[in-house]
Write a structure and sequence with these properties.
By secondary structure, this protein is of the alpha+beta class. Helices cover 30% and strands 25% of the residues. The chain contains 13 helices and 23 strands. The strands form six sheets. It has a five-stranded mixed beta sheet, with helices on one face. It has a four-stranded mixed beta sheet with strand order 2-14-16-15. A four-stranded mixed beta sheet has the order 4-5-3-13. The protein is globular and about 65 Å long. It starts with a strand and ends with a strand. The structure holds ligand EPZ. Ligand EPZ binds next to helix 1, helix 5, helix 6 and helix 11.
């Protein structure tokens, strides 16, 4: 999907949203499917640009990977160790496809991964962990070449920071390595738990996912399975913040509020109504929104860094001060030099022309536009499409005035939702 988003703000949101599967679970699961010797089916996957990029990576490795309705099916043994450079450069998560290739083929070649420009985002933790498991990693310009001449072996690894991606890389490597791996200082995000559940369903032996110590016994081969990835807590957070900013009442179903509770608690503190169910939540805002004071992001179970720009957009509509410090990424907020964004009460948002700086920053601009008086245009929407499928129609269904507008070269305007 291309095209600008045109939003006329000032309308409250009302209705129900079913939260789709999580991008940040689906991408590692697609990487994990490279370890499986029989077909993998991921059920009800949203049509995201990053999912398409992942399919291209799987195809470049020699697998058959494609859509069957809303499911994705991956089959075939990877036979090519070099990942498609265009696809790999486009997305940070491309690095996750290396460990399985290394485990199965003894070699993986890629380019340094791209992704949202929200900080330096090195891959040293991925590489040093793999090196402890027997891999030799070398960079040649933008290319990254990993070899494991004698295969991967289990190791005792301690991460200096609980990186989500490095934990996923090392889980994938350990599941197929020879012997036992103990990973200390691991990330505890729910997407790690989902990856471990998938691997175990395929015959792996992973214990302790969701805690900071994960133990894995390597297996020679894994089978495939049919798996429904967990719900997207950041998409749920997006709609919760949109309701806080624009007002109204939105029910978010299919996503346990537990996995984004810190965000919901801050919204409650700001004056929103939040009614918790086991797998759903109702967020409402009819009165004024107040500032949240000082809040911080952190690694799970703290407030997610990906939710910070979304919350900031809601804070823009509050009648008193808020500040958010992001301790995970040093350039999370494109509009400030430091890690802390301070938001003072203003005289009300007005529609504007803006460009998405990155995925969550782009979604935040949409939220702000929903709350603003008048018309806004958000360009650079390909960045938003990386993580939101059907964002505009979902918001339109809740009563927002939002549409996609393509600007073909002949000057005629095409509209689509
Ligand atoms: C994952 O990125 C998510 N992406 C990000 O979501 C999310 O913001 C992030 O985790 C934190 O929750 C996917 O799951 C595909 P990290 P990842 O490794 O794995 C430093 C979104 O909008 N670090 O936990 O790249 C790094 O620089 C995206 O959906 C190293 O120093 O995050 C950062 O400061 C954006 N060396 C911190 O750790 C390493 O080798 C956290 O990064 C790896 C990371």
């Amino acid at each position: 999907m291309e095209g600008d988003l045109i939003i006329t703000g000032g309308r409250p949101l009302n209705g129900t949203v079913r939260i789709p599967a999580a991008k940040n679970s689906v991408l590692p699961l697609l990487a994990a499917s490279l370890l499986c010797s029989s077909p993998v089916r991921l059920r009800a996957v949203p049509e995201l640009a990053d999912v398409d990029t992942s399919l291209q990576l799987l195809q470049s490795a020699g697998c058959e990977a494609g859509w069957q309705g809303s499911d994705i099916v991956v089959q075939g043994v990877p036979g090519v160790c070099r990942l498609g450079a265009d696809a790999a450069a486009r997305m940070r998560a491309s690095i996750l496809f290396c460990a399985p290739l290394l485990a199965r083929l003894g070699r993986a070649e890629t380019v340094l991964p791209g992704g949202c420009r929200i900080g330096a985002r090195p891959v040293d933790l991925h590489l040093s962990g793999l090196a402890q498991m027997g891999a030799v990693c070398r960079a040649e310009g933008e290319r990254l070449i990993l070899t494991a001449p004698s295969g991967l072996h289990g190791a005792e690894i301690t991460l200096r920071f609980p990186s989500v991606g490095a934990t996923e890389t090392l889980l994938l490597a350990a599941a197929a390595a020879q012997g036992k791996t103990v990973l200390r200082g691991a990330a505890r995000e729910p997407e790690i738990v989902d990856l471990a559940a998938f691997l175990n369903r395929c015959g792996a032996c992973v214990q302790g996912a969701g805690s900071s110590t994960i133990r894995v016994e390597g297996r020679r081969s894994l089978s495939g399975c049919s798996f429904a990835p967990m719900a997207d807590r950041i998409v749920a957070s997006t709609f919760a913040c949109a309701c806080a900013a624009a007002g109204g009442r939105v029910e978010l179903t299919g996503c346990a509020p537990e996995i984004y509770r810190p965000l919901l608690e801050i919204l409650e503190q700001m004056g929103c109504g939040v009614k918790y169910g086991p797998e759903s939540v109702v967020v409402s805002r009819f009165g004024r929104l107040h500032g949240a004071g000082k809040v911080f992001t952190g690694v799970y179970p703290a407030l997610a860094t990906d939710a910070a720009p979304l919350l900031a957009a809601a804070m823009l509509t509050a009648d008193s001060e808020s500040s958010i410090e992001d301790v995970v990424f040093e350039r999370r907020f494109a509009c400030t030099e430091g890690r802390t964004l301070c938001i003072l009460p203003g005289t009300g948002l007005k529609g504007a022309n803006t460009a998405a700086p990155d995925l969550r920053g782009g979604a935040a601009l949409v939220i702000a536009a929903l709350a603003a008086q008048g018309k806004s245009r958000v360009t650079n929407t390909a960045l938003i499409d990386r993580g939101y499928a059907g964002f505009a129609p979902m918001l339109a269904k809740l009563g927002s005035e939002i549409r996609r507008e393509t600007r073909p070269s002949d000057g005629t305007e095409k509209k689509r939702h």
